[in-house]
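User: For a reading group we're discussing how well predicted structures match intuition. Take Serine/threonine-protein phosphatase 2A activator. Before you show the prediction, I'll give you the sequence so everyone sees exactly what went in.
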Amino acid sequence: MISVEEQNRCFVPVRRILNNNDLNLFKESEAYRLIDSFICDLNESIQDKPISAEVKLSPSIEYILLILKRVEEILNLNPPVENKGSRFGNPAFESFYDQVECECPTLHAAFGLEENAIGEAGKYFYESFGNRKRIDYGSGHELNFMTWLLSLRRLDILTKEDYPAIVLRIFVQYINLMRLIQTTYFLEPAGSHGVWGLDDFHFLPFLFGSSQLVHHKYLRPKHVRDPEILEMCANDYMYLGYVRFINELKPNVSLRFHSPMIDDISSVKTWAKVNEGMIKMYRAEVLSKLPIMQHYLFGYLIPAVPSMSAAPQEGEDAEISHIHSTYGDCCGIKIPSAIAASKTGWRRLPFD
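Assistant: Thanks. Here is the predicted 3D structure of Serine/threonine-protein phosphatase 2A activator, as structure tokens, for the group to look at:
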């Protein structure tokens, strides 16, 4: 266990990647290695394991599942407000977010950590449900959730023996919870690449999901085009489950039309190649993209390189030193999600 003295060195994490030089420093840093190794180790731990596989549930795993259950209860306590059928984010998300942030210290108290350590890990936790101001969500918020788990690993709350359960129980529950949050509050995609990305919101279900299928006796990447296979196997395999979910949001168009990248990947011969490609893509499209990583936070547990830019001052305009996506939609330009469109109907954006 990290000592009390070390826990007291923790602090609420802050932004340090403000430009390409900072990003390059990050890619050669201890923080990058910690994140990358954690994702790869989790990926390996669930190879060939369906969601229904028996995994060890330690007391820490069971308590984290209760934490996520409490977040779902907070969601139910903060229903969406009337928003005239808009496909954009519902303002009630702000009250949901505020309550999660308010309860964060209490939710973490059972871990027996010092106050500073709770503050550092807790920041990653409530930042993993989306951005309060923009009411959006993307792969950067998903990365915050993984960093929260990595922080608990660094604090010895989680161990390597917990890795299969981290993915097959905790991460699966988190994805299901995020679907509820996205559906309830119509979170906008943060920095969506539209149909040219894997998904509006998530990346890791495809990475972990392909690992689950690496040596499957029957299922092949091409089977994502088969609705019957998806229906039979989606509940046990994250990759197939997420493709089914996307198909349900866009039922009247083909996979080739609404998700061409996923359709292209389906022509790969083996799941091992898909998984290998997903790891490379995650490094390139998430961990190496400035519009995403400029929002990443560094503290004591996940340290910044000392020569990175100083953290923006509290209250500083978020747009200062803020790099927008080359797609022009990382923030500021409202992009309704497919989830919102499926609930309110597809219609021309100028009338929203």
